[in-house]
Design brief:
Layout lengths: L6 H28 L7 H27 L10 H23 L4 H8 L1 H13 L7 H18 L12 H22 L4 H26 L12 H26 L2 H5 L4 H13 L8 H18 L13
Helix pairs in contact: 1-9, 1-11, 2-3, 2-8, 2-9, 3-7, 3-8, 4-6, 4-7, 5-7, 6-11, 6-12, 7-9, 8-9, 11-12
């Protein structure tokens, strides 16, 4: 099936990714409970994430090797690029996110983390010069961000903490850079190989860093583990990462970064919906959720709508 410029295929692929990522929100909460990890155990959380991404890398490499009937190995010249991509896509993004999350609220982190989509588009347009920044792209991002604000903000409002929200913002920047790197590398390299091995490398680094943090901080190991549920949820989260990020990378390979990244605004909205269904948090739904969904949808349509658009003044040369 043709992926480039096929709106239905792109929408279906992006929606699958966002649905999987959205399901990770309640999945991670369930995983912490089953593995006996409390919300404040930052280093144990990082270690848990490291194991998850290590397994995701194994799954990507295993499935792709079975489909192609040969073991997929990166070429010698690709190892540096894979490590560099992993530094942003997995290590930087999640280390900063979990460390920042320990010093901010869940609402703040969801709002700040949605900047990933802004950073991806800005990096692609202004720094890497892969595409032009237009009025429609900016408007679409504003609409999407407004949707995230709508679904996450409460009467407590929003306040910025440099140690907490600042680190989450750095996490978002890492993701934005990684999206552009995926687009760049995919033109000359196998997207699936890069996805699998960057997960593998990042998972190892995060597992070691998380375990070292637990030991240095004098923390204890996780509490009682509930098997087999704990193993099943960890495997599911690994599948979420392996399938979603690999598919997202393929979409980025054949389409503009801005046209794909704007779909990312669906993640927190989908996460709220699935959390309400799976975790019994139905009180988060209502008119606010509907308004957020409409705003995000409007943003996606705005960025991907074909037709005449207006370049921003500094992009006209």
């Amino acid at each position: 099936m043709k992926i480039k410029n096929n709106r239905l295929t792109v929408f279906a692929g992006a929606f699958i990714c966002c649905f999987l990522w959205g399901s990770a929100f309640p999945g991670i909460k369930a995983g912490y409970r089953l593995w006996g990890i409390s919300d404040g155990d930052t280093w144990q959380i990082i270690r848990f994430a490291g194991v998850r991404f290590f397994l995701a890398g194994i799954l990507v490499i295993l499935f792709a090797s079975l489909m192609r009937r040969r073991l997929l190995l990166p070429k010698r010249g690709e190892l540096g690029k894979i490590s560099f991509l992993s530094l942003f896509q997995t290590i930087g993004q999640y280390l900063f996110f979990y460390l920042g999350l320990a010093h901010t609220t869940g609402v703040n982190s969801a709002v700040v983390d949605s900047l990933t989509n802004f950073f991806a588009i800005i990096t692609a347009c202004l720094f890497m010069k892969m595409e032009k920044l237009t009025f429609r792209k900016v408007l679409g991002c504003v609409l999407g961000f407004a949707g995230v604000l709508t679904v996450n903000l409460t009467h407590e409002g929003f306040s910025f903490s440099p140690l907490g929200d600042g680190l989450v913002a750095l996490s978002a920047l890492c993701y934005g850079i990684s999206s552009v790197l995926i687009k760049k590398y995919s033109s000359q390299h196998d997207t699936v190989i890069f996805s699998g091995y960057q997960f593998l490398f990042g998972g190892i680094v995060m597992t070691i860093a998380g375990h070292a943090g637990v030991v240095i901080s004098g923390g204890s190991s996780a509490g009682s583990v509930s098997m087999p549920g704990a193993a099943i949820i960890l495997l599911y989260l690994a599948l979420v990462s392996s399938v979603a990020y690999t598919l997202w990378g393929i979409l980025l390979k054949y389409n503009d970064v801005s046209g794909i990244s704007v779909f990312g605004f669906m993640n927190p909205v989908t996460g709220v919906l699935l959390s309400a269904i799976l975790l019994g948090e139905a009180d988060q739904l209502g008119i606010r959720y509907i308004a957020a969904l409409l705003l995000v949808t409007a943003g996606i349509i705005t960025v991907n709508r074909k037709g005449r658009d207006t370049l921003l003044p500094d992009q006209q040369n």
